[in-house]
Design goal:
About 95% of the residues lie in helices and about 0% in strands. The protein is mainly α.
Amino acid sequence: MRYAHATRTAISHQLMRYAHATRTAISLWAKSQRRSHSVAKGQSLCHDT
């Protein structure tokens, strides 16, 4: 029983770490997307004038 509990704890720790890494990656991706969008907007403004 103790082994099963330890395994479950280890798995949950791995999931937590994976979820945190995923969240970090998503936030970084969102930031880069926002930056590229603002750059595209600036370029379109330059083209309009």
